[in-house]
Amino acid sequence: MTLPALGWQGLVVLATFGISLLIATYCTYAERVIAAFLQDRVGPDRAGPFGLLQPLADAVKLFTKEEFFPAGANRALFVFGPCLAMITALMSSAVIPFGGFLQFGDTQIHLQGIEINVGMLYVFGIVSLGVYGIMIGGWASNNKFSLLGAIRAASQNISYELAMGLALIAVLMMSGTLSLREITLQQTHVGGGWHLSDIFTWNVFKQPLGFVIFIVCAFAETNRTPFDLPECETELIGGYHTEYSSMKMGLYLFAEYVNVFVATAVMSVLYFGGFNYPFQYEFLDFLTNKTSLSADWAHNIFVLMGVVAMFAKIFTGIFFFMWVRWTLPRFRYDQLMRLGWTILIPLAIFNILLTGGLITFGVIQ
């Protein structure tokens, strides 16, 4: 009995959610290890070899801590806020293409949870809903510092979503589609010979200014340093999650890391070719003609190498996020808003006009 195509895609969606949670869990470990390396000190080394079980110890601690509800808090919304933040973070990963399709006889398994022709619009819509989890949690806590953090998060997200959206318009002008899979496939170089020109089809070489705008906005959207004003400890104690404890606190923390994972995945798809990698079709030709592998297995190994390339790009992006956190100081709030409204948005509009001119005169396609 074979599983129908819809069933396979359902399993892919569940696997995507599981991988997102696993990566978010071990991002906490990576954050500590990278921080220790950059600060020349010892990182986690107690729980398991090299501290590899530290995330599991943290999860057990969060699950077993006492449940706490502040006096005067709206209990239903107090619980709903972190749940919404985590749900929206996971939902945004469902449309990311992590690879091509695996072939098993007549069965094809696409390594993308949901393929829709408005995938980029879907991601933006879900990410925009994520701020409601922060707003609801901050307001329901009945704490002035939590409310201030939630208001900061909302105004920050609105400000930087505009610049990010404008930066992506330039990519959409070149690609002519909102489908993340189509944008990825358009960055594929098809041609003979072993050369590095494969990577020059990536959009980062066609949209360097748009990429810089996108990555700055991604830091702000995920509330990462130097844009972590919503949870600024020196001013707001802990920001919107000041009153949270146990796993409700954990959901907010894990949602932030899932958002970092999604942001780097989207960045890899839009600007770094997604699951494409140099010499990929030469590699497929080698597997097909120079080995004894069947056509299906040659194709599957080729696709799995693309998955490895995709995650290598994602992990490089996550490392960059963590490196910046332990390198740059936090902005003042007026500096943050000025950067978004008076610098990034005008630059993004200029980038749209420049891209339109280059497309008109045939410089880029």
What's the layout of helices and strands?
Layout: H1 5-38, H2 54-64, H3 75-91, E1 101-104, E2 107-110, H4 119-140, H5 144-175, H6 180-185, H7 203-206, H8 208-221, H9 233-236, H10 246-271, H11 280-289, H12 295-325, H13 333-360
Antiparallel strand pairs: 1-2
What do you see in this structure?
The protein has 365 residues and is mainly α. It has one domain (64-103, 114-360). Helices cover 65% and strands 2% of the residues. The chain is built from 13 helices and 2 strands, in the order H-H-H-E-E-H-H-H-H-H-H-H-H-H-H. It has helices spanning 5-38, 54-64, 75-91, 119-140, 144-175, 180-185, 203-206, 208-221, 233-236, 246-271, 280-289, 295-325, 333-360, and strands at 101-104, 107-110. Strands 1-2 form a two-stranded antiparallel sheet. Helix 11 runs antiparallel to helix 12. The radius of gyration is 22 Å and the shape is globular. The protein starts with a helix and ends in a 5-residue tail after the last helix. The mean pLDDT is 86.
Radius of gyration: 22 Å
Instruction: Give the low-pLDDT segments.
Output: none
Compute the average pLDDT. 86
Order of helices and strands: HHHEEHHHHHHHHHH
Compute the number of strand runs: 2
Proportion in β-strands: under 5%
Instruction: Give the CA-based shape.
Output: globular
Q: Kindly, what is the distance between the CA atoms of the first and last residues, rounded to a whole number of angstroms?
A: 46 Å
Derived from helix and strand composition plus strand pairing, the structural class reads: mainly alpha
Provide the spatial order of strands within the biggest beta sheet.
1-2
Please estimate the helix content.
Answer: 55-70%
The largest sheet, given as strand count, sense and whether it forms a barrel, is:
2 strands, antiparallel
Distinct helical segment count = 13
Q: What's the domain count?
A: 1
Subcellular location: Cell membrane; Membrane
Transmembrane segments: 6-29, 77-99, 119-141, 162-180, 200-220, 257-277, 297-324, 336-364
Pfam family, one: NADHdh
InterPro entries: NADH_UbQ_OxRdtase_su1/FPO, NADH_UbQ_OxRdtase_su1_CS
